[in-house]
Each structure stands twice: as structure tokens, then as C-alpha cells.
TrEMBL record:
It holds the Pfam family HATPase_c. The chain crosses the membrane at residues 12-32, 159-183. Residues 203-424 form the Histidine kinase domain. Signal peptide: none annotated. This is histidine kinase. It comes from Parathermosynechococcus lividus PCC 6715. Keywords: Kinase, Membrane, Phosphoprotein, Transferase, Transmembrane, Transmembrane helix, Two-component regulatory system. InterPro entries: HATPase_C_sf, HATPase_dom, His_kinase_dom, HisK_dim/P_dom, HisK_dim/P_sf, Sensor_HK_Regulatory, Sig_transdc_His_kin-like_C. GO terms for molecular function: phosphorelay sensor kinase activity. The keyword DNA-binding does not apply. It comes from the Bacteria.
Length: 429
């Protein structure tokens, strides 16, 4: 599938580039050819004007033009005409050829034209010609035909055409190669997203299948027995599984909306220390059940920050509370009874820093890279949860342009560090 997409992208890229090259090459060719023709026509017009004026003046009151005396005797004029590849023909009033610079007569009919025109000489030879009548008053002295070889237009045009074809071919080959690699780069995120979607779908299906199967089993047991006590027990199990399933669906929807950008962040002014205190208060009953010790330290803000602006952030308070709850709750769950949790809040330059450390069993170094993956659970754990808590925490931190880091050592405990940007005016250093 992706190879076909890559081929189509590359073909589109090459096709569009080929079309642009064709338009450019055609325009450039026509421009150069038009410039060459214009140059030849200007030369013809200039020669006709100069020579015809000289002939009229030289002839004066004579009845006929002495072509040889007027044009053939001037070596400078002959050399200039040869340099410009110009040939002249003089005709008497009866349109009979009287004088020519051509080695052999052209045998072309005389056709008056005040504008240059292209005429064939036979074979593949062509001339660009201009013919004018020489008139003094009402007296016709003859005709002047000026010719210029057309190969001075066709040869450079053909050379330019071959150069453009060669250049366009080489360019298309290079574009084809680069287009293939660019198409591969373009679909790389798509392949990654597709692989991620497949993995996510497989994980979600696995996590959803288990509670659904248990609910069905308990429903069947409840329907198969007439004992009210047994039915009541099965209904309680169903209710508990339904809550778990509902929590899992909520977490999945939250992650999907966060990553798709469907739901805006809607930042509001809030105080991070107040949110942290509220989360700690919510987790205290659990800590007391496990006889755990909590060490909470909220550092004084910098002296340049007023008290009412201490730990002030722009963010979504619900999301930030969920972030802190997930991390603190993980610390409580994975710390043994009688353990200690240290929570610190301070400001480090451009960031507020929240450190949540426990002295629990720790996390193996091999599992740390996958800790924030969806549905990832530590090996050998039997604690309740969906495996989405840390993925949600990371998503919230990234949405607030912050960072989350984890350090852990087996048997020593785990430390999570959350960095959230401070308002610009409160940044120090």
C-alpha cells in the first residue's frame, strides 16, 4: 500500500516538474528565437534604409541606376555586408535582375515587401528577405532586394532546442530520483502513524476485550442462578467492571482528543502550588492506609515575584490536576507500606519544577524507554490500572509546552520531574 502511495507521489512530483520545465523551456526557446529574428529583421531594415538612400542620392537625375558603380566599388560597404552575411540584388524598372552579390542568381520572383519575410531557396535553404521600390519623385528607378541567410536563426535555435532537451532530460532524471526519496520522506510519518494506529488498536482491543468478556460471564452466571445473594454479588462485579471499562474509554478518548487537537487547551490563570496541595489532599487517605510518610516542600518564590503571582501559570487546571494526580497516585501505588514520598515544588529559571520521588521498588533501566507508552505495564505488577496514566501525563505536559523526566533504580525508588514554563515576565536567568 505504502509503495503504491510512494509511486503516485513520485509520479505527481515528476509530472508537475516536467510540466513546469516544458512551460519554461518553451517560453525560453520562443523568447530566444524571437530575439534572433528581431535582430535579423533590424539588420535588414537598417541595410535597406541606408542603401536605398545612398542609391537615390547617387543616381540623382540619371534615368537608371549604375549598380556596380554605386555599390560594387566601395570595399568598406562590401566588407560590412559580408560580415553581416547580407546579400543585395538590384532590379531595373522592368523587374529584371541588373546586379547581385550572389554567386548565382536566385531565380526567385520579385515580391515587394516593406516587412521582412522568409522565402525558400530550395532544399533546406531559406532566406529572410526585404524588397523595396526605389522612387525619385514620380520616377521609378528600380528595385532593391536585401537577403539574409535564415540559418543564422535556425542553427542557434536548433542548438538551443537540443540543449534544452538535454537539460530537461537530465533535470527530469534527477527530479525522478529526488522525487522518489522525497516521496519516501513524505510517507514516513504516515507509515509511522499507521504502525502506531495498528499497535494502538491491538492494545485497545486487548484491554477492552477482557472487561467485556468478564461482564458477559457475570451476566450469564447471574441469569443462570436464582439465588438473590449470588445475583447481587454478580451485579456488584458487573458494576465494578463497568466503571473500569468506562474509565478506560474516557482515557482513550482523552488521549485521542489531545493528540488530534480536536479540543483546544483553553488555558486559564491558575496557581500550580494550589493544584498540587489539592492533589496531595486527595491522595492522603490512601497514604494513611499504607502508613506512608509524605514530605512536601514548596519553595519560596523569587523575591522579584509578588506573593499573589507565586507559581502562577497559564494552563488548563483540570488537565494539570490530572497530570499531578496520575504521577502522585503512581508513587503511592508502587511504594510499599511504610514508605516515603517526597514532593518538591520550586522555580528553576524559566520553568516551575515539580519533583515526585518515592523509595519504592524502582523500575529496571530496560523498561524506562517504554514507560510512557500506551497500555504499558511494568512486568510482574498486579496493581489495578489501564496502563494509560503516564501516557496521559506526557500528553498533558507536551500540550503545556513542558517536559517530563523519570529516573529510577531498582530497589531504591523512582523520581519524576515535571517542568512547566513560567509566564515570560516571571522568568529569571
Amino acid at each position: 500500500m505504502f509503495r503504491a502511495i510512494q509511486c503516485r507521489l513520485a509520479l505527481w512530483y515528476v509530472g508537475v516538474t516536467a510540466l513546469l520545465l516544458l512551460v519554461f523551456a518553451t517560453g525560453f526557446f520562443l523568447y530566444v528565437r524571437g530575439t534572433l529574428i528581431e535582430r535579423v529583421d533590424d539588420t535588414l531594415s537598417h541595410v535597406v534604409e541606408v542603401v536605398s538612400r545612398a542609391l537615390v542620392i547617387e543616381t540623382g537625375t540619371a534615368e537608371v541606376i549604375d549598380w556596380q558603380k554605386s555599390l560594387g566599388s566601395d570595399p568598406l560597404t562590401s566588407a560590412a555586408l559580408e560580415d553581416d552575411h547580407i546579400d543585395l540584388e538590384g532590379f531595373d524598372p522592368n523587374r529584371q535582375l541588373a546586379w547581385s552579390t550572389f554567386a548565382e542568381p536566385l531565380n526567385l520572383p520579385l515580391h515587394l515587401s516593406r516587412t521582412p519575410e522568409t522565402v525558400p531557396m530550395g532544399g533546406d535553404r531559406w532566406l529572410r528577405q526585404m524588397t523595396v521600390a526605389l522612387v525619385v519623385g514620380d520616377r521609378l528607378l528600380g528595385y532593391l532586394r536585401v537577403s539574409h541567410p535564415w540559418f543564422e536563426v535556425t542553427q542557434p535555435s536548433q542548438a538551443l532546442l537540443w540543449d534544452l532537451l538535454l537539460g530537461a532530460t537530465v533535470a527530469l532524471i534527477l527530479v525522478s530520483i529526488s522525487g522518489w526519496f522525497l516521496a519516501r520522506l513524505a510517507i514516513a510519518p504516515l507509515q509511522e502513524s499507521y504502525a502506531y494506529l495498528k499497535q494502538f488498536t491491538a492494545d485497545a482491543s486487548h484491554e477492552l476485550r477482557n472487561p467485556v468478556a468478564l461482564i458477559q460471564t457475570n451476566v450469564q452466571v447471574a441469569l443462570a442462578t436464582a439465588d438473590p445473594a449470588t445475583q447481587q454479588q454478580q451485579l456488584q462485579v458487573i458494576e465494578r467492571l463497568s466503571r473500569r471499562l468506562s474509565r478506560l474509554v474516557d482515557d482513550l478518548l482523552f488521549l485521542a482528543r489531545q493528540e488530534s487537537g480536536m479540543v483546544p487547551l483553553n488555558p486559564q490563570p491558575c496557581h500550580l502550588d494550589a493544584l498540587l496541595l489539592a492533589v496531595v489532599e486527595e491522595q492522603e487517605p490512601l497514604m494513611q492506609q499504607k502508613a506512608m510518610e509524605l514530605c512536601l516542600n514548596i519553595a519560596d518564590p523569587p523575591v522579584t515575584v509578588p506573593d499573589q503571582q507565586a507559581y502562577f501559570v497559564w494552563g488548563n487546571p483540570d488537565h494539570l490536576s490530572r497530570l499531578l494526580t496520575n504521577i502522585v497516585n503512581n508513587a503511592v501505588q508502587y511504594t510499599l507500606e511504610g514508605g516515603t514520598i517526597h514532593i518538591t515544588l520550586d522555580q528553576q529559571g524559566k520553568y516551575y519544577r515539580v519533583v515526585i520521588a518515592d523509595n519504592g521498588r524502582g523500575i529496571p533501566a530496560s523498561e524506562l524507554p517504554r514507560l510512557f507508552d500506551r497500555f504499558y505495564r511494568l512486568q510482574g505488577t498486579a496493581l489495578p490500572g489501564t496502563g494509560l496514566g503516564l501516557a496521559i501525563a506526557q500528553s498533558i505536559v507536551q500540550a503545556h509546552r513542558g517536559q517530563i523526566q523519570v529516573e529510577s533504580e531498582v530497589g531504591q525508588g523512582t523520581k519524576f520531574t515535571i517542568l512547566l514554563p513560567t509566564p515570560a515576565k516571571d522568568r529569571q536567568g
